Amino acid sequence: MTRLLAHSPIDGQVIGEFTITPPETIPPKIQSARLAANAWSALPVATRCQRLARLTQVMQENLDQLCELICQTTGKVRTEALLGEIYPTLDLIRYYEKNAAYILRYQTVATSPLTFPGATAGIRRQAYGVVSVIAPWNFPFQLAVVPMISALFAGNAVILKPSELSLPIGHVIIELFKQLDLPDGLVQWVIGEGQTGEQLIDAAPDFVFFTGGLATGRAVMQRAARHPIPVLLELGGKDAMLVFDDANLQRACDAALYGAFSHSGQICVAVERLYVQHSCYAHFLTQLIEGTAKLTLGHGAAGDLGAMTTERSIAITEAHYQDAIAKGATASAPWQRHGNYVTPILLWNVSPEMRIMREETFGPLLAVLPFTDAADAIRQTNASEFGLNASIWSKDIAKATRIAEQLQVGLWVINDVLKNAGHPALPFGGIKNSGFGRYHGAEGLRNFTYPVSGLTNRSSLPKEPNWFPYSDLRYQQFKAYLDFVYGSGSFYQRLRRNWQGLQAFRDYSCFDLTQHWHNLKQRLPWRGDI
Questions:
Q1: What is the spatial distance between Cα 338 and Cα 333, in angstroms, rounded to a whole number?
Q2: Where do you find CATH 3.40.309.10 in the chain?
Q3: What pLDDT, in 10s, does the model give residues 350-389?
Q4: Mean pLDDT for the chain?
Q5: What is the DSSP secondary-structure string of 6-55?
Q6: What mean pLDDT comes out for the span 463-482?
Q7: Which residues are catalytic?
Q8: Where in the chain is the domain with CATH 3.40.605.10?
Q9: Lowest-pLDDT range, 318-322, 474-478, 498-502?
Q10: Other residues' Cβ atoms within 10 Å of the Cβ of residue 375
Q11: What are the beta bridge partners of residue 133?
Q12: Which end of the chain is more exposed for a tag (fewer CB within 10 A), N or C?
């Protein structure tokens, strides 16, 4: 097979045909990208920002076409395409346009005048070179462009490997970047399935950024380790929502429906476990059931849930539903599928051994469970092997914050849902089986670079105190120095008991110890020679 057909999950129509990238062409792509990266990273950060900022205008000029293509490719509704794919991307571009130069600035580091007399030190950020971005199918625009633009702001070249299920989006991304003033070869892509991703990694880019499932993430990490190549893994989640009885329950109910069923649950930070305090559990569950029944399917003017993107995701979602029902769970509705549209379902009377509680579902199912108190809510939340996002709902912000800080997650939000994951200044990423590394924010931009530490010695001394020759006397003098710097007692006590040993360093220090000691003696209650 040398070609791939792209089908819309909405109606099955072919929306594109693409030629798989021949493996022998991938190493030359890496080579040309590396040459482009050398030229690009040599530009001032402000110049890079100016050129990349134009992507905002290019996206705005093509906004409706982009949203329509995203809908056709993923099955999501237009509002989700606009708010979930386009808006966060524009927001991050604007954030880095304003802040990248400051984030990537040279940072000076303080040096000790005794240990490093006449020296200055600092850290500069160096771009890796060629970054491979392996993007997923659920948010094929945002989760490709955001790491791509981050890598480019940092001074790298990028080779994109989009999901084979979202090739039309990969193509339009490349066409958008062609409208920017960038060096030839700075932004490229490869087309194919998993084998093409392996070939891309084997061609030895300098950094791999992967977003996707746990199993594939492990395979990417193992492949990259052969070379070795640093990786950043953004994997799945089993995110929890904690609702306390003092929360605004109607707001929390609406948030739960949105957090669980937006894009039919095909979001890594989707709410998949909903914990509700026992005292309001029955009332809240009734609200949820009523709210779920009002959600609509389809791509009409008022459609809430679009089509699910892949047959595999539908099969996993149904398997989780059937497993829960077989083990005693209660459902708000029977399993219903209309083409690739799946009716959203609540599940309660669930138990920890059910798949719905252990595995990432990535579909429109929401498990609802009671908890007794804060300690119980924290225990149940942290029982998962995943640790990506969580939300806490309470009018007592101090209490909610204390609880949030005890959750084993990479990010959390109080009295809101999903939105925190798109904040451009907040680092995004998980712990445990949700991956490692961060992007977004200052920390995220720096993760597309590595630190280069430098120290400049401006001393005119003929030699340093730690150079040869060694002797027992020298050993004793160094002991005196260590006691003076790190020992117990006041500064005056340490200086007095180590005075003889410190005399050996008088030619190396940036101040005159004898004069310094003379000044100190005038203020001390005792007199006499040392």
A1: 14
A2: 239-421
A3: 999 999 999 999 999 999 999 999 999 999 999 999 999 9
A4: 94
A5: EE-TTT--EEEEEEPPPGGGHHHHHHHHHHHHHHHHTS-HHHHHHHHHHH
A6: 91
A7: 234, 268
A8: 3-235+443-452
A9: 498-502
A10: 11
A11: 160, 209
A12: N
